[in-house]
C-alpha cells in the first residue's frame, strides 16, 4: 500500500468502520447528482416537440441544471463548513424533489429552466459537494478506493433510471414521470442521514511525517521542515491571532480560500478543466437523441445509456483500485491526463460508428473513458491541495466551471441545428477533451519535476539545520568543560 498523503487534519482518519456507510450514502448522493441530468435526456425529444423548441433550447435544461449544480459549490462549501454534510444533503434532496414536482406543472420551456434547472440544480449541488468532502474526513490511505466506489453511484443510478424513465414516459407521460421522479429523488435524504460527522477524538498524527501530497505546495513543506523547532510557537501565535479576527472575515477566509490561486497544482487543474468541461457532458446529453436521429427506436436509444452506465459502473471502482496502487498513486495526475485524452479520442472517432452496433461499441468505449475520468476528477484535486483545503477548492472550482458546464451542451446543440448533423458536435467535444489532456500531461511533467527539486531542497535545508543544532550542542558542551 502506498503511503498516504499528508492531510494535516489533526486526527487520524479511521479508513473504514462507519466510513463505509458514509461511502454508501455518498454513492447514492453522487449518483443522483450526476446521473439525474443525464437520465432526463430520455424526455427531451418529446418535450422538444411539446413546446416546439430547437435542439439548443432543449439542451439548456440540462445545462442550467448542471451549471446550477456547479455554481452552488461555494454556497454548499459555506453550509458544509458551518453545519456539516448531513443536513445539507438532506435539504438538497428536498430541493430536487420540489423542483421536479413543480416542473410537472410546467407550461413553457422557461418553466422547466427554472424548476428543473435552477431549483433542481442547486439541490444537486447540496448533494454533490458534501458527499465528496466527507469522504476525505473518513479516509486517507484508502481514499482513492473510497472515492472510486462513491463515484460509481453515477453509472449505477443512470443504468437504473435510463430504462425506468422510458417506462415511466410510456405509462404516465413526461408530466407524470416528473412527479414520480420527485419522490424517487427523496432517497438523497436517506443517504444524507448516513453522513454523520467523523469522530475526531483520536490522537493527532506524529509531527515527523515525511510524506507530502503530490502537487501540494513544496514551498510550504520546505518552510515547515526548516522551522520544526518553532512550529508549536507559530501555531499558538496563529491561534491567538485568529481569535481576534472578526467572525465574518473568519468565515470568508475559511470557506473561500483565495490563496489557492497561488497554488501551482490547483492552477494547472483549474486551467485544463475550464476547457475540458465544454465537451464533458454534451456527448452524454445527446447520446439518446443522436440514436433517435438515426432512426433507432426509443427503447434501443435508452438502452445505449444503460450500456454506457453499465461499463462506467465497473470502470470506476477498478480505476480507484488502480489509482491506489504503489505504481500509480505517486504520479496519479498522469493517470488523470490519460483519462481526459482517452475521452477526446472516443468523441473524435464516434462519427465513424455506423448503425446501432457502431453506437453500442462507442457507448462501451465512452463508458470506459468517462468512468476513468469521473473516478479521478475529484481525487486528483484532493491529491493536489490536500483533504483539509479540499472543500474550499471544490467550491472555487465548481463556481468557475459552471460557465463551460452551462454553455457546453447549448453550443453543441447549436452545431446540430446549424449543420443538421451530430458529427460536428462530437468533433468539437473531442477537441475540447483532447487538448486539455495533452495540456495536463505537459504541465504535470514540469510540476512533478519542480516538486522533486523543491523536496530535495527541503531535505537539504533540514539536514543543514540538524547539523547546526548538533554543532551548537557540541560548542555548548566545550564551553561547560
List the SSEs and their pairings.
Layout: H1 19-39, H2 44-51, H3 55-71, H4 73-83, H5 85-103, H6 109-138, H7 143-151, H8 153-184, H9 187-193, H10 218-226, H11 231-244, H12 247-255, H13 264-276, H14 282-285, H15 287-293, H16 298-323, H17 332-349, H18 355-377, H19 379-385, H20 390-419, H21 423-480
* CATH topology descriptor: Growth Hormone, Chain: A
Instruction: Give the helix tally.
Output: 21
Please write the string of helix (H) and strand (E) elements: HHHHHHHHHHHHHHHHHHHHH
Runs in which pLDDT lies below 50 for 5 or more consecutive residues are 1-7, 203-249
Q: What characteristic shape results from the CA principal axes?
A: globular
Mean pLDDT value: 79
Any idea what the CATH architecture is?
Answer: Up-down Bundle
Radius of gyration, in angstroms, nearest whole number: 24 Å
Assembly state (oligomeric): single chain
What's the structural domain tally? 1
* Proportion of helical residues: over 70%
Q: How far apart are the first and last residues' alpha carbons, in Å?
A: 50 Å
User: CATH superfamily, called what?
Assistant: MFS general substrate transporter like domains
Give me some keywords for this one.
481 residues; mainly alpha; Growth Hormone, Chain: A; disordered N terminus
Amino acid at each position: 500500500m502506498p503511503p498516504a498523503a499528508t492531510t494535516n487534519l489533526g486526527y487520524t482518519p479511521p479508513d473504514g468502520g462507519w466510513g463505509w456507510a458514509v461511502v454508501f450514502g455518498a454513492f447514492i448522493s453522487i449518483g443522483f447528482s450526476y446521473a439525474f441530468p443525464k437520465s432526463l435526456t430520455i424526455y427531451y425529444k418529446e418535450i422538444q416537440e411539446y413546446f416546439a423548441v430547437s435542439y439548443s433550447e432543449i439542451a439548456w435544461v440540462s445545462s442550467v441544471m448542471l451549471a446550477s449544480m456547479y455554481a452552488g459549490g461555494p454556497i454548499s462549501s459555506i453550509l458544509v463548513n458551518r453545519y456539516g454534510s448531513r443536513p445539507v444533503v438532506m435539504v438538497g434532496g428536498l430541493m430536487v424533489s420540489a423542483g421536479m414536482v413543480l416542473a410537472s406543472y410546467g407550461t413553457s420551456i422557461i418553466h422547466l429552466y427554472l424548476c428543473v434547472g435552477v431549483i433542481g440544480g442547486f439541490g444537486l449541488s447540496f448533494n454533490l459537494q458534501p458527499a465528496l468532502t466527507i469522504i476525505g474526513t473518513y479516509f486517507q490511505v484508502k481514499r482513492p478506493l473510497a472515492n472510486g466506489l462513491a463515484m460509481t453511484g453515477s453509472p449505477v443510478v443512470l443504468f437504473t433510471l435510463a430504462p425506468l424513465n422510458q417506462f415511466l414516459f410510456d405509462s404516465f407521460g413526461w408530466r407524470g414521470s416528473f412527479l414520480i421522479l420527485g419522490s424517487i429523488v427523496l432517497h438523497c435524504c436517506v443517504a444524507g442521514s448516513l453522513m454523520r460527522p467523523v469522530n475526531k477524538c483520536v490522537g493527532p498524527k506524529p509531527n515527523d511525517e515525511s510524506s507530502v501530497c503530490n502537487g501540494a505546495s513544496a514551498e510550504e513543506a520546505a518552510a515547515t521542515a526548516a522551522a520544526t523547532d518553532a512550529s508549536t510557537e507559530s501555531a499558538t501565535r496563529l491561534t491567538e491571532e485568529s481569535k481576534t479576527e472578526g467572525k465574518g472575515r473568519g468565515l470568508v477566509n475559511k470557506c473561500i480560500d483565495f490563496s489557492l490561486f497561488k497554488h501551482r497544482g490547483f492552477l494547472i487543474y483549474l486551467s485544463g478543466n475550464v476547457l475540458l468541461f465544454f465537451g464533458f457532458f454534451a456527448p452524454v446529453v445527446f447520446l439518446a437523441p443522436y440514436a433517435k436521429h438515426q432512426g433507432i427506436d426509443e427503447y434501443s436509444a435508452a438502452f445505449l445509456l444503460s450500456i454506457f452506465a453499465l461499463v462506467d459502473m465497473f470502470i470506476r471502482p477498478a480505476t480507484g483500485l488502480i489509482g491506489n496502487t504503489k505504481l500509480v498513486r505517486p504520479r496519479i495526475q498522469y493517470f488523470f491526463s490519460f483519462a481526459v485524452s482517452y475521452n477526446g479520442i472516443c468523441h473524435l472517432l464516434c462519427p465513424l460508428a455506423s448503425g446501432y452496433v457502431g453506437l453500442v461499441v462507442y457507448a462501451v468505449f465512452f463508458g470506459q473513458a468517462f468512468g476513468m475520468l469521473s473516478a479521478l476528477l475529484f481525487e486528483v484535486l484532493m491529491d493536489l491541495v490536500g483533504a483539509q483545503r479540499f472543500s474550499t477548492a471544490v467550491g472555487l472550482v465548481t463556481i468557475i466551471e459552471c460557465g463551460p458546464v452551462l454553455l457546453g451542451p447549448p453550443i453543441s446543440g447549436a452545431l446540430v441545428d446549424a449543420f443538421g448533423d451530430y458529427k460536428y458536435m462530437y468533433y468539437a467535444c473531442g477537441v475540447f477533451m483532447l487538448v486539455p489532456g495533452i495540456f495536463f500531461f505537459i504541465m504535470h511533467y514540469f510540476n512533478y519535476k519542480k516538486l522533486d527539486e523543491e523536496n530535495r531542497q527541503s531535505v537539504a535545508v533540514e539536514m543543514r539545520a540538524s547539523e547546526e543544532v548538533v554543532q551548537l550542542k557540541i560548542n555548548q558542551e566545550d564551553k561547560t568543560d
